[in-house]
């Protein structure tokens, strides 16, 4: 058995990855024991989970198709079906796109820091870890609370349902219904006895595992976006010191040696390796070839008496900033590719779900189980898309502010290399980084407002048709 070496994003997201493994998602990597037998056992466990999850969903759909007798019942069953469609889509999507997931997680395995900025990089990584852990804890607590609340509310009030009266053409009667968390058709008796309690346990498991699948995938997406936000903050933070350092190359600077006395200057961490990025490197590569090539051939100690090693350190710091920003751009594109289609389905389904929930909210006539259920659905569904949008909006804001940070620093006191560097940064940062839903929309607070607007429109049409 070989000890698993966790590095980069895998180490940062390890609690989330471990929970995803335990929930039965098809993750074949990140295990210490990769023997043939253990891989087979893990695949069997994942397939059993998939069968249990999809079987209950099919039984729910069968019930909705065969036991819906009026518009209110059809709306209620449709909301339940749409609500649990999210986890199933994410289960299928994640299980079939694991290679994209592995590729995105490995993006930061070799993203080393620069000796002059190691302290800043470490501080922002610690901030990323803290925010990831809080997000996992908060959403995990909400998942547990929602499961328990759903179970408790099942045993409150009467367990009845309305069906057509066989003795009256237009009449209805109320009959006893099995007290289950989710209505579903079963080929066995669920009104009482051992089969009822086994079905109840099965539904509790299904409820918790499906909500866990959806929320763990959502947490993963938000954590990946959060990581890019903190890296952009890191680049903004070192922009000013970087320009000050570059000024020491060809401009007289008082106490130039003090610029190199930073807490992390003794770090032995290697520089980030230069990697090609075909779709985003035209200007950056021209700059690197023309301006930074002086590292190899530049001579002299400059007006501040800098040593050759210090000159190389300054120029390598500029290269570090450029390469790190290119890496973030490539990483954000990978996140969009990994999760974009799932986001598209999530927003489409959520729009219809919220429309039906708005219609159901008009039927609330007091403080009862129906009111709590409808409000619970509504708050939970809104919370899901708001979480996506708030982190997507943060990414847009942070990437947009990079250009402002570059222009606001004292670039006019820097070297010619620094002035060219700032010009290129402003060019490349004119378009903010963002995560898209299969390129149909951008994940931001504007999307949240658009979804609410669409819900209001569809709701008004539904009311008029009704």
From TrEMBL:
Keywords: Behavior, Cell membrane, Glycoprotein, Membrane, Olfaction, Receptor, Sensory transduction, Transducer, Transmembrane, Transmembrane helix. It is found in: Cell membrane. Pfam families: 7tm_6. The chain crosses the membrane at residues 44-63, 75-93, 135-156, 369-391, 440-463. Signal peptide: none annotated. It is a multi-pass membrane protein. One of its GO terms (molecular function) is olfactory receptor activity. GO terms for biological process: signal transduction. This is Odorant receptor. It comes from Phenacoccus solenopsis (Solenopsis mealybug). PANTHER family: ODORANT RECEPTOR, ODORANT RECEPTOR CORECEPTOR.
């Amino acid at each position: 058995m070989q000890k698993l070496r966790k590095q980069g994003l895998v180490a940062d997201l390890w609690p989330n990855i471990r929970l995803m493994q335990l929930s039965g998602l098809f993750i074949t990597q990140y295990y210490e024991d990769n023997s043939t037998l253990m891989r087979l056992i893990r695949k069997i466990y994942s397939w059993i989970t998939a069968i249990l999850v999809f079987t209950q969903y099919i039984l729910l759909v069968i019930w909705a198709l065969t036991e819906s007798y009026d518009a209110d019942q059809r709306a209620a069953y449709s909301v339940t079906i749409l609500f649990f469609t999210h986890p199933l889509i994410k289960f299928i999507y994640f299980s079939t796109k694991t290679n994209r997931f592995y590729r995105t997680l490995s993006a930061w395995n070799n993203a080393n820091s620069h000796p002059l900025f190691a302290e800043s990089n470490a501080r922002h990584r610690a901030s990323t870890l803290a925010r990831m852990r809080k997000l996992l804890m908060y959403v995990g607590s909400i998942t547990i609370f929602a499961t328990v609340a759903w179970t408790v509310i099942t045993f409150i009030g009467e367990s009845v349902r309305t069906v057509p009266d066989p003795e009256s053409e237009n009449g209805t009667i109320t009959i006893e219904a099995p007290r289950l968390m989710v209505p579903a058709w079963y080929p066995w008796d669920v009104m009482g006895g051992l089969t009822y309690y086994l079905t109840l346990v099965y539904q509790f498991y299904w409820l918790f595992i499906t909500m866990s699948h959806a929320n763990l995938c959502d947490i993963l997406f938000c954590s990946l976006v959060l990581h890019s936000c903190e890296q952009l903050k890191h680049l903004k933070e070192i922009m000013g010191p970087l320009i000050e350092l570059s000024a020491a190359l060809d401009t007289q600077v008082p106490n130039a040696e003090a610029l190199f006395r930073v807490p992390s200057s003794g770090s032995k961490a290697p520089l980030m390796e230069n990697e090609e990025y075909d779709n985003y490197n035209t200007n950056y590569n021209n700059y690197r070839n023309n301006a930074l090539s002086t590292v190899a051939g530049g001579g002299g100690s400059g007006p501040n008496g800098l040593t050759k090693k210090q000159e190389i350190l300054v120029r390598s710091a500029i290269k570090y900033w450029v390469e790190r920003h290119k890496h973030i751009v490539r990483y954000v594109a990978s996140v969009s590719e990994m999760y974009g289609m799932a986001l598209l389905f999530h927003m489409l389904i959520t729009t219809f779900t919220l429309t039906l929930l708005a219609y159901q909210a008009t039927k609330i006539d007091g403080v009862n189980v129906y009111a709590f259920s409808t409000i619970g659905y509504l708050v939970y569904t809104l919370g899901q898309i708001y979480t996506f949008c708030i982190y997507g909006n943060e990414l847009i804001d942070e990437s947009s502010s990079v250009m402002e940070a570059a222009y606001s620093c004292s670039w006019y006191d820097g070297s010619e290399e620094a002035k060219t560097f700032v010009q290129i940064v402003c060019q490349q940062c004119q378009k903010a980084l963002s995560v898209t839903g299969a390129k149909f929309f951008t994940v931001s607070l504007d999307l949240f407002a658009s979804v609410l607007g669409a819900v209001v429109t569809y709701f008004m049409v539904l009311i008029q048709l009704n």
